[in-house]
């Protein structure tokens, strides 16, 4: 296992790594919607979804892969009433990268770190 670290995704806010490279698989930690350059988090849930996906993709790219290699995502959302807005942003993200939609789980959670509205983790395969 090799830890992945990139400045194109936010630093971990706890005792964990941005992601791990297992050779055939790359697994990211949950990505909050923090812009790695500004350290700010957008307010809008759709913008947060896009930023979380950008952060996850940056980690995947650091391992030499791209959006088409993402085979599974897990979406943690604070309010499932935002599901349709998250879906729109999610669909646009993968369409903008000419990528096939991966398998996905989406669950509502009581609270996320830094009071984010969304957090997304991905698994990519070579």
UniProtKB/TrEMBL annotation:
<comment type="similarity">
    <text>Belongs to the RutC family.</text>
</comment>
<dbReference type="InterPro" id="IPR006175">
    <property type="entry name" value="YjgF/YER057c/UK114"/>
</dbReference>
<dbReference type="InterPro" id="IPR006056">
    <property type="entry name" value="RidA"/>
</dbReference>
<protein>
    <submittedName>
        <fullName>Reactive intermediate/imine deaminase</fullName>
    </submittedName>
</protein>
<dbReference type="GO" id="GO:0019239">
    <property type="term" value="F:deaminase activity"/>
</dbReference>
<dbReference type="Pfam" id="PF01042">
    <property type="entry name" value="Ribonuc_L-PSP"/>
</dbReference>
<dbReference type="GO" id="GO:0005829">
    <property type="term" value="C:cytosol"/>
</dbReference>
<dbReference type="InterPro" id="IPR035959">
    <property type="entry name" value="RutC-like_sf"/>
</dbReference>
<dbReference type="InterPro" id="IPR019897">
    <property type="entry name" value="RidA_CS"/>
</dbReference>
